[in-house]
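This part of the workshop introduces the protein records we will be handling. A record pairs a protein's sequence with a compact description of its fold. Comparing a sequence with its C-alpha cells is the quickest way to learn the format. The record below serves as our worked example for the rest of this section:
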Amino acid sequence: MTKAGIKYSTLWSDDFTDKYFLGRLEKWLKTGKCSHATKHVKKFADVKVPAAVKKTGEKLAAELIKDKAILGVFDEGCMGMFNAIIPDHLLNPTGVFKERLSQSALYYESTQVTDKEAKEVYDWYIKKGMTFHLGKNEETELTKNQILLQCKMYIAAVRIADDFGCHTIGIQYQQGLKDLLPASDLVEGTLNNADRPPVKSRDGKRVLYKGQPIPHFNEVDECAGLDGLMTYRVHKEMKQPVENTLHDLRWGDWDQSGTTEDYVWVFLISGSAPPAHHIGGWKGSDGLRQ
C-alpha cells in the first residue's frame, strides 16, 4: 500500500485481547487512524559511523555507480508480487539495471544441456557429500531423473547469466516453469554458493563465474536481489564468506523457553539457502521431494 500511495494503519497482537491492541483499535474505529511510537528509529545521518566503515561503504557505492550492475530478472511480475518489483526510475540511480529475461528461454536452454554435462554436476554433488533422498515414483518422490533435470537448469541459468553479463539473477519458478521442470530450489541454493559445480561456456572454452557465487534472489524479489548484490560485495570487500540469501522474517519475541534472555527473531524460507549456511556445508545438505 505504501508503494501504491495508499494511506493506512497497521495493528497486530498475540491474541487481540491486550490493552494496547484494544486501545489502538478503538482509536482507529473512531478516527480511521492509529499510530505507534517510533522513538527507536533513527535517521542514518544522526548515527555516528566509524570512519573505516564509512570509507568502505563510500568505496563500494562509488564502484557501483561507475561500473554498474545487472539484475537478471526471469519473468518479472508473473507471480503478481507488486512489492517485489523495484521501479526502474528508483533502481537505476543506484547504478543497478534490470535485464528482463524469459523463463521460456531458461526452459529451452535447459533442454540444450547434454546428459553428460548434467551427470558431471550430479557426480559433483555426490562427491561433495550431499544426500539425496531418492525414490522411484516420479509423481510423489524425488528421483535421480528429476535431479538431472535440475542440473541442466543450473547449467542453463549460469550460461544465460553470462550471456547478458548479469551480476545476480532471480528465477520465479512457481508460474510457468513449475509445469515444465522440477523445482528450482537446488539450482538457486547452488548458485548462491561460492563452492559449486563448474559450468563451462557452450563451446567449452571458459569456466563461467569461476570460484564465485551468482547471487540468486528467490521468487524474483528484486528488493532481495539488490540487497543480496550489496551484501555479497560488502562481505567480499571485508574478506568474509560471501554467501547470502533471502529469508522471510516470520516472528519475533522474547525467548519463552528460558534458553536465552534475548529477543529472538525467527527467519524462515528459503529455497535459495546456500550449502555454506548449513552445518557441514555440502555434507550437511539434503535434497528431498518438495
